[in-house]
Specification:
The complex is a heterodimer of chains A (about 280) and B (about 270).
Chain A: H1 5-29, H2 33-53, H3 57-78, H4 83-104, H5 112-117, H6 125-144, H7 146-154, H8 156-161, H9 166-188, H10 193-205, H11 211-236, H12 240-275
Helix pairs in contact in A: 1-6, 1-9, 1-10, 1-11, 2-3, 2-4, 2-9, 2-10, 3-4, 3-9, 6-9, 7-9, 10-11, 10-12, 11-12
Chain B: E1 9-18, E2 21-31, E3 36-40, H1 47-55, E4 62-67, E5 73-76, H2 90-94, H3 102-111, H4 127-140, E6 145-149, H5 157-174, E7 177-182, H6 186-190, E8 194-198, E9 202-206, H7 208-212, H8 215-227
The chains are: A mainly alpha (about 280), B alpha/beta (about 270).
Chain lengths: ~280, ~270
């Protein structure tokens, strides 16, 4: 089964979805959508550095993401700027440094599109091992620190007062995010990682009645999007990575649409009644 | 255990300095098991800041703040806003920072009259309901130290007296230390063992009666507050229904006007303001 490139793509995609779902819930709860973007921009710098120093790309992306995350934590304490401004600064600095570094290496011909949108159909058995091994590790760490991370998300001071060590939880969260960006970059590409994090969580929010339930649902929805996107891309010969996001996007619209239509119908009726 | 007589928390000349000014300075206090200590003072007098120092949320820039090791703490902050993107029901909130059994949670919710809200989404609660739910969460854990920052916000007047009575009852039952923050003067006085008056520093402290008649207290809250002050003393003049709420047939409010303007000497601590 592992010989077939399509099966490998499914296995890899499912691995990414299972990790991105629960972590994505925290991205949504903490309103950190832009944090995912920042890390994926920083990933480009990671790629450039990996090529420059001839090291493993996943490792290099992970380290750069960790560096950017820690820079954010430190800057948040020292500088009187809001988080979104700091994320903007970091994202574009990392992106610009990455592009400049790449331009120096005239001998390297980089398939930029490949990094931006990923190439899930080219994953190797080794990639799958990285995704599932790394992903499992991320999920285990997330489960261990779940209570303190969730408490810190709900209320930082409460968590601090009641011995939940929220600062430690925040650092762990940043590390987990960096790890997910690093292992999933090759699958969906730096531009689409954020959607793998946000879409399933956003869809799950409509149906979940508790945080743990929402995390499990998000993982499941991510898996469905991967299947939908990959089979769609096979069917209509569309690029695989974007197809997964399109599938998630359609999923989102379908779940939002019924209630949106009901709202519109209601307001029309209400206006009619008012005008009569 | 040797720890038993050690105070739960102690602040020693502690102060917090932010943006070129002292939010609060020179605060010394200790709180032991089974004791209710109330911080009162006007807006911006540093009550919450002092509580946060005691809890370890803020590190004092001067002086020291100590807590007993492995102290079981529960905190009801002044303002908690829960992001609506988080799906959170009251029952799940009960075990936010530590495991509590269903029975313990139910009992705590019953005491605060919020059991019927157990399956409600937290963001749909009213201010008063949310405040009661937060109190239920805090007591369900059976803490050694309970810190309540304006716990009666959004709770109506009768509910307010009930809340303070409940806090006293919890103290009696758990023998926990309670640090209470309040800006309303009269009702809280009856429910407390010691009062500290804050206004950027400790203005006066002592038993409620001593503080209420002290000159510092009058200066702080104005002559009107001091002269018109009626101390509510605890008298069980109403009945509870089986669900913990008050029987509306019974008369739930009694004021005992024990406050006269007698020249009782102030036992307030030193005042340098």
């Amino acid at each position: 089964m592992m010989d077939d490139f399509f099966s490998r793509a499914i296995i890899a995609g499912v691995g990414v979805a299972l990790v991105a779902g629960p972590l994505g819930c925290y991205i949504v709860w903490r309103r950190l959508a832009y944090f995912g973007d920042t890390l994926s921009h920083a990933a480009l710098l990671g790629i450039a550095l990996a090529l420059l120093f001839q090291v493993n790309i996943t490792l290099s992306v992970f380290l750069v993401s960790v560096f950017v995350s820690l820079a954010l934590l430190i800057l948040q304490r020292r500088v009187t700027l809001s988080a979104d401004a700091l994320l903007g600064l970091l994202a574009h600095s990392a992106l610009a440094f990455g592009m400049v570094a790449l331009s120096f290496m005239t001998w390297v011909r980089v398939d930029l599109m490949g990094f931006l949108f990923g190439d899930i159909l080219a994953v190797t058995p080794f990639d799958i091992a990285v995704i599932w091994g790394g992903g499992l590790l991320v999920l285990i760490v997330l489960a261990i620190f779940w209570r303190s991370l969730f408490a810190a998300t709900v209320n930082l001071e409460l968590a601090q007062a009641e011995g939940m060590k929220p600062e430690q939880a925040n650092i762990i969260f940043m590390l987990l995010m960096a790890a997910v960006i690093a292992i999933s970059m090759k699958i969906v590409g730096v531009l689409l990682i954020t959607s793998m994090l946000i879409f399933p969580a956003a869809i799950a929010r409509r149906f979940a009645s508790g945080p743990e339930q929402m995390a499990l649902m998000a993982a499941l929805i991510g898996v469905i999007a991967v299947f939908g996107g990959l089979f769609g891309s096979l069917q209509w010969d569309t690029p695989a990575g974007p197809s997964i996001v399109v599938a998630a996007s359609i999923f989102f619209i379908i779940t939002v649409l019924p209630s949106a239509i009901i709202e519109i119908v209601k307001s029309i009726r209400f206006n009619k009644v008012k005008n009569e | 255990m040797t720890q038993l007589n050690e105070p739960l928390i102690s602040l020693n000349n502690a102060g917090i300095y932010r943006s070129d000014r002292w939010l609060v300075r020179d605060v010394s206090l200790t709180l032991g098991s089974g004791e209710i200590l109330t911080l009162i003072g006007p807006n911006g007098s540093g009550k919450s800041t002092t509580a946060k120092m005691a809890l370890g949320i803020l590190k004092p820039d001067e002086g020291s703040a100590k807590r007993r090791k492995k102290l079981k703490v529960r905190y009801v902050p002044q303002k908690v806003s829960i992001d609506w993107t988080v799906p959170l029901k009251v029952r799940r909130l009960m075990s936010l920072t530590g495991h509590v059994t269903k029975d313990e949670a139910d009992r705590a919710m019953n005491l605060t009259g919020t059991l019927h809200l157990a399956n409600a989404e937290v963001r749909t609660l009213s201010g008063g309901e949310f405040q009661r739910v937060l109190l239920a969460r805090a007591i369900a854990f059976k803490p050694e130290l309970l810190v309540l920052d304006e716990p009666v916000q959004g709770v109506d007047f009768n509910g307010e007296i009930e809340m303070y009575e409940l806090i006293r009852k919890i103290r009696d039952e758990l023998q926990c230390g309670v640090l209470l923050i309040s800006h309303d003067l009269h009702i809280v006085m009856a429910a407390t063992d010691r009062v500290i008056c804050l206004n950027g520093h400790v203005c006066c402290s002592g038993t409620p009666m001593n503080v209420a008649v002290s000159q510092e207290y009058k200066d702080l809250f104005g002559a009107r507050a001091a002269s018109g002050l009626a101390l509510y003393e605890h008298q069980h003049d109403h009945q509870h229904l089986s669900n913990g709420s008050i029987n509306p047939e019974s008369n739930p409010i009694t004021f005992v006007n024990q406050m006269t303007n007698s020249k009782q000497s102030s036992k307030g601590d030193k005042h340098d303001g």
